[in-house]
Amino acid sequence: MLYLIGLGLGDAKDITVKGLEVVRRCSRVYLEAYTSVLTVGKEALEEFYGRELILADREDVEQEADSILKDADSSDVAFLVVGDPFGATTHSDLVLRATQLGIPYRLIHNASILNAVGCCGLQVTLPRMCFFVVLTRNVLPFYRLRGDFILVHEL
Questions:
Q1: Distance of alpha carbon 63 from the chain centroid
Q2: Distance CA 84, CA 9 (A)
Q3: Could you list the residue range(s) of the whole structural domain that residue 83 is in?
Q4: What is the CATH number of the domain that holds 91?
Q5: How far is CA 61 from CA 11, 31, 132, 152, in A?
Q6: Mind listing the pLDDT tens digit for each residue in 107-124?
Q7: Are strands 28-32 and 2-6 parallel, antiparallel or unpaired?
């Protein structure tokens, strides 16, 4: 079984109880180390989880996914992600590869950057929709200031 486990946004103790239980029983535990900033060191996570973590960089996940998925059909393998597991498309690709190989998977969600929006004084529910703005050209400061003036916020 492949487990994709969200670690939340803070320290080692932000992992869910369910996530921690899974980490402690897995044969291998990978720590994704490139799509988000880890606020604590790998050693702090290893100490709290009681497990050795294998760092997985972009190349490991995108080019060497087979090594992560190796034996996941017969033993439990965990893939830890800062925030929530589906915060990056690479993690979706890992699930698709597992599915193609007949490897079952489970998700254990956690807080992500969208949950932290309230700390900035913004609300995801206003104006009843959440938008992601993808800039396709350089934005001049005038447009940014005008947007701030009319209370348009970007994440």
A1: 18
A2: 9
A3: 2-113
A4: 3.40.1010.10
A5: 23, 10, 25, 36
A6: 999 988 777 777 777 776
A7: unpaired
